[in-house]
Amino acid sequence: MRICGVILSGGKSTRMGTTKSFLEIDDKPVITHVADELKKLSDYVSVITNEPEDYQFLELDLFRDRYKNKGPLSGMEAAIYHIDADIYLFAACDMPFIHRNVYQHLIQSLHNYEAVIPMYNERMHPLSGIYTKNVLPQIQTLLDNDQRKIRTLFDYITVNYVTDYNGIPKHTLDKHFFNMNYPEQYELAKRF
Fold first, then answer.
1. What is the maximum span of the chain, computed from C-alpha positions, in angstroms?
2. What is the pTM of this model?
3. CATH T-level fold of 3-191
4. Domain ranges across the chain
């Protein structure tokens, strides 16, 4: 079973006011933290970005969206289209504290489903989910019809919604699902 870690780094970072991927925590860009953690349980890690020249320092394969200006769903499409894997672990570039134990638990929850979506603090986290290659045609159909919401995809595929994390500590989960959209969230992240 080939596992691919995918970092989605395509947003405009308008709320943050600067590119979130490059903000530093512990003297390293946030995206480096994300890549390092994904490498611990993936056979292959890549970045989906429409500015690949800015991400050369990561020394990872970089892919552009094939469907332009269609949001994170198009980033997912690009990853699954370009990379041959059985399971894709997705992470947003603004989640500096993702943890391999959470992804490992999601992988173990896959069974015969096409996706595993974590639910935490009464919120769905589709960009922290795992997906199989089988979802590609459904994603392409949605994008061809200009439907951009990831949640719409779940109407067409089999999904295991995970709410139980088998003893993973609350502080690990709180950090894993933490993302930075605003400057004050970045300041909080630096104090974690």
1. 43
2. 0.95
3. Spore Coat Polysaccharide Biosynthesis Protein SpsA; Chain A (3.90.550)
4. 3-191
